[in-house]
Specification:
about 230 residues, alpha/beta, Rossmann fold, 3-stranded antiparallel β-sheet, 8 strands, binds 2'-deoxycytidine-5'-monophosphate
């Protein structure tokens, strides 16, 4: 079977990771994985089971729950032990709590293990998160670190909420994003940091198309260097 690339896209919330990762995966006909959805699934279960103050119990949930992602029509569907929790993982309560669950070392260990197992032999993958290029796949063929100014990211999230019919004030979103950034970047285990060999893209002033194009240029370069054929992206 011919080799395919591993593309790792990391960065803070609202930097455009999901949007670009989905387009790139579609263009290359690669598997797309949103690892944030897995941290969200564990957080949902912790809230539901009333164990938010018990890290050991949360680790147990992360280790023993069957978390599955299914990407259908542009949406990452999330199932836990066969139950569809897609609609439950992007609430405000959860946004506020997900970083405190994500900082638990045992939770990270369990989810990183699951994430590595999602890469099938001979299949290309575009995985997005906070520690993909640094921890999950340190040997990824392409590493992108996507950033954007906080105001810009909050503005984008506000528009997404508007589309969904849930109006959330920009200042509330901004507050949540900056708290999450601080927690995600300062935690002891696998913090959000740019890998030394990652290519940084600041998406503050460029369009989605330009973002995608910049990432695709890196993908093509890596493919040529490694002698890997990729689909025509024209
Ligand atoms: O990408 P997202 O906003 O849905 O991620 C939700 C939270 O999950 C984020 O605040 C930090 C955490 N996360 C993480 O710690 N590591 C990852 N690889 C992905 C997400």
């Amino acid at each position: 079977m011919s080799k395919k690339l591993i593309v790792a896209i990391d960065g803070p919330a609202g930097s455009g990771k999901s949007t670009s990762a989905k387009i790139i995966a579609q263009k290359l006909n690669y598997l797309y994985i949103d690892t944030g959805a897995m941290y969200r699934a564990v957080t949902f279960l912790a809230i539901k089971q009333g164990i938010m103050d018990n890290p050991e119990a949360i680790v147990n949930v992360a280790e023993n729950s069957d978390i599955r992602l299914k990407y259908v029509n542009g949406v990452t569907q999330v199932f836990v032990d066969g139950i569809d929790i897609t609609k439950n993982i992007r609430t405000h309560e959860l946004n506020d709590k997900v970083s405190s669950v994500s900082k638990i070392a045992g939770v990270r260990k369990a989810l990183v293990k699951k994430q590595r197992m999602l890469k099938n032999e001979g299949e290309g993958i575009v995985m997005e998160g906070r520690d993909i290029g640094t921890v999950v796949f340190p040997d990824a063929d392409v590493k992108i670190f996507l950033t954007a100014l906080l105001d810009k990211r909050a503005e984008r999230r506000a528009k997404e909420y508007e589309k969904k019919g849930t109006g959330v004030p920009v200042h509330t979103i901004k507050d949540n994003l900056s708290k999450r950034d601080a927690l995600d970047s300062s935690r002891d285990t696998n913090p959000l940091i740019k890998a030394n060999d990652a290519f940084e893209v600041d998406s503050s002033k460029i369009s989605i198309e330009e973002q995608v194009e910049l990432i695709l240029q890196r993908v093509k370069k890596a493919a040529v260097e490694k002698g890997i054929e990729i689909l025509s992206t024209e």
